[in-house]
Design a protein that fits this description.
- The radius of gyration is 15 Å and the shape is elongated.
- Helix content is 34%, strand content 29%.
- It has a two-stranded antiparallel sheet with strand order 1-2.
- A hairpin with a 2-residue loop joins strand 1 and strand 2.
- By secondary structure, it is α+β, with helices and mostly antiparallel strands.
C-alpha cells in the first residue's frame, strides 16, 4: 500500500519525493486495545502550498480510518534541493 500511495502522490505532483522505510513496528491504542503492527513508514517531501491537498488525497487513498499525517519543520536545506523540490510540485 505504501508503494501505491507514494507513486500516486508523486505522479500527482503533491509530493516531490517519497521515501519508504519498510518493516517499522508500531504499538498504539486503537478502539480500546493496545495493538501492534508491522508497517512501512512513508516520508513525503512537499511544500507548504501543497500540504492541504496532500493530506486530503492521502485520506482518500489510504486504507486506514485514521492514517498518520505529521508535518515536520525543516530548519535548513540546500538551495539546489529546495529549487528541485518546488519545481517537482504542482503549482497552486
Amino acid at each position: 500500500e505504501a508503494n501505491r500511495l507514494a507513486r500516486t502522490l508523486v505522479e500527482e505532483r503533491l509530493a516531490a519525493c517519497a521515501t519508504l522505510i519498510p518493516a517499522v513496528q508500531s504499538i498504539y491504542h486503537w478502539q480500546g486495545k493496545v495493538e501492534s503492527a508491522t508497517e512501512t513508514l512513508l516520508l513525503l517531501k512537499t511544500g507548504p502550498d501543497q500540504l492541504a491537498a496532500l493530506e486530503a488525497r492521502l485520506h482518500q487513498l489510504h486504507s486506514y480510518q485514521t492514517p498518520e499525517f505529521l508535518v515536520l519543520g525543516v530548519e535548513a536545506a540546500s538551495h539546489p534541493y529546495l529549487e528541485w523540490l518546488q519545481a517537482s510540485l504542482r503549482q497552486p
